Each structure stands twice: as C-alpha cells, then as structure tokens.
Amino acid sequence: MSSLSALKISSCFSKYKLQPSRILHTAWFYFGTSQPVSKRPTHSVPFRTVDLRSDSVTKPGLLMRRAMAEAEYTDDVFGDDPAVKGLQKLAADVFGMESALFVPSCTMSNLIAVMVHCRERGDEMIVGDLSHMHIYEQGGSAQLAGVHSMIVTTLPDGTFDLDQVEAKIRHGYPNVYYPRSRLVCVENSHNIQGGRVLPLPFLQELRALVDRYDLQVHMDGARVMNAAAALGVQPSTILQHCHTVSVCLSKGLGAPVGTVLGGPADFIQRALRARKALGGGLLQVSVLAVAGKMALSDMVGRLPEDHRNARTFAQALLQCNPPIYQLDLNSVETNIVCFRICEPGVSPAELCRRAAQVCEAEERTLGQGVRVLMLPVVGGSVRAVWHLDISEEDTRLAALKMQFVAQQLTKWKARGH
C-alpha cells in the first residue's frame, strides 16, 4: 500500500469517526505472542475484529484527538503546564482528595504509592494474592522499593477476610526479626475476579481496622470509575475510605496514556519526588493531560453501556449449545467477564486461539468472519473486557462467534481429537 493510500484510509477513519475494529478486514493479526495465531488462509475471508483483550486498547475519538492537536506545550517538570494542573485539580475534586499527580501508568502510580507509604526499606505491605499489584507488576515493590509483601487470600468478590488481615499485621516494631507493617492495598474493581466491585461496608470496616493500627490504605483503582458507575455513587463515596488511589485514564475512559495518583498534599509532594526518580517526569505533556481531562470529565457517564454489553455477552455464553462455558452471572458487575471452558482437553489459550481464527465455514454460518480477541488469565479462566470501541453489534457478533466455536469444538472432539 502506498503512503498516499494509507493517508486516505486514515483520513476516512477520522472524517467518519470510524474505528478500524469496526471495519471488515482482510489483514492479519497476532494474539499475544510472537507467533501468528494460525497460518495465513489460502482464501481471503473478510472478517470483523472484536478486541476484548483489555479496555486499554481504546483509541482516542475525534474530539479528543482535536483537543490533543490544539494543546499548548509547556513544561510540567518545571510546574508550568496549565493543562496538567487542570487535570490534577479536576482529579482531586472528583476523588474527594486534597491533591493529585499525573503519572504515565497505573503500575508506576501504584509503585510510587508504595514507595511513599513505606518509607524505609524492609517495610511491609499487605496485599491480595490475586491482586494486579502482586501478580502483574513484576514485584516492583520488592525489586525497586525494597518493600516486602504479606499476602492475604483474595475472596471471590475481591475482598479479604478482615480477621486474616488483622492476623497478618506485624506487632512489636522494632523487633529485629520482622518487617514493619505500613500499608494495606485493595483493588477496585477487581481484575482477576472478573471486575467485582468492593462493597462499601467492606471498605469502611477495613479503614476502621487499619486506623486502629496506624496503617494506610492504598487503592489500585485502575477501574474505580467502573466501580462507582456500578454502585451508582460518586467516586469520592468509595475513596473516602482510602488514603490514596491510582486511577487509570487510558482504560475505559479512553485517553491514550496516563493515570492520576490522588492523596493528601504532603503525600503528593513526596510522590512527585518518587515520580522523578522513576523517570516519570514527562516535560511537555500537555498533549496527554488534555486527553486525560476530557476522559475524566466526559467519558465516565458512558461506562454503564460497557457494563450492559458485558452482561449481554455473559448471558449469551450461558445459553450456548453445547454448554461448554461456565461462569457466575451474578459476578458480572462491571465491564469484565471471566469464564471457564468445560471441554476436556481444551485450554483457555486454545479457546482464545480458536476465537481469534476465521474460517470459510464460519463465513457460511454467520454471514461473515468474526475474530474475537480475548486473554487467558491466572486461575484457568478466559477474560473479555468491554470498552468504548465495542458496540452492541460487536457484542452480538462476539456471542455468535463463541456459539460457533462451541459447536466446532464438539465436532472436533467427535472426530476423536
């Protein structure tokens, strides 16, 4: 394809507000590895891609891109950037917190929070065994901050047994044998547990517990806006029970990059130093800050649409014949669906591979090819995540594709595989 042709196609997407994921493709995709999901088909089959791997795959819309293009460039490291200041002020107001700091990623934001709360090497944080901070952030708290993790069991709804939390709190500091308990970390909504929303009474009781022992609560609130939408409350209603929070702007809210770390003013002052040490000072960052501000102010109201589509997909999985998908419909509270496959010999990775493939039989059955991109996750489940680039029609087609995959697996097993 010539560069001129590519420019014309790009302009078409922008002019008519089209997302490439909504278009019929004959291109080739890869699924989470360095290898293609299958060999290139002999005959080209038109297909539509429904990308449910994560809500982090969202793309800025036309208005957001225009705002980014018109941003004024000043230096945030010197504290001169009005766009960053505006974003941080808005975030602090939305969170009900004293201050806030723009950070490149939620992983960095969580690490900064740990570094500031746990001020001495050898301090300890209490964290769930299925939390994103424990599983998916490379052990950065130990690797970079010198902070030890004490693990508690994550319950199916994303909460902890508070008696277990209390039993894990260290006493007798400065006993030379033990680290010092400083911090308890929660995740809301909970990724691995399928987007579960932490109940407000749990957060209230946890805050009362940590206050008794002079500890702090940090919330990995990458999707706390989804949690607030599911509960029908303001984010500040949730966050009043936490000392600090990390809120991602680049997942369901649709900004291209960024997270906001919220907390008390003295905490944010120390967080600013930690951000600089981790390489998070981004100089002329207005182009990202204006997108983040638009995400936080304009995109929160549409999150229930993602929740409805996720639940529609979950209901469709349970209605598939043969019934090879297993999930608890009551656990689908936000934009994440985690489910298991009950077909012997078929792993979550194999199911994801088949969902991402397109064949001519599918085109004959469904009228077109549909590639559904999902991820296998910890615990033997498959995760699908809804976001602003996935429509009701995308959801319907994804459900039809999963029905087709179920039928094909049954035929495959009947042939003795």
UniProtKB/TrEMBL annotation:
Leader peptide range in chain numbering: none
InterPro entries: ArAA_b-elim_lyase/Thr_aldolase, Low_specificity_L-TA-like, PyrdxlP-dep_Trfase, PyrdxlP-dep_Trfase_major, PyrdxlP-dep_Trfase_small
Annotated GO CC locations: cytosol
Domain Aromatic amino acid beta-eliminating lyase/threonine aldolase, chain residue ranges per copy: 51-327
Residues recorded as bearing N6-(pyridoxal phosphate)lysine in the entry: K251
Keywords tagged on the record: Lyase, Pyridoxal phosphate
Keyword Zinc: no
Record GO biological process: glycine biosynthetic process; L-threonine catabolic process
Organism superkingdom: Eukaryota
Cofactor: pyridoxal 5'-phosphate
GO molecular function: L-allo-threonine aldolase activity
Family to which this protein belongs: Belongs to the threonine aldolase family.
NCBIfam families reported in the protein's UniProt record: GntG_guanitoxin
Name of the protein described by the UniProt record: Aromatic amino acid beta-eliminating lyase/threonine aldolase domain-containing protein
Biological source species: Denticeps clupeoides
Lineage: Eukaryota, Metazoa, Chordata, Craniata, Vertebrata
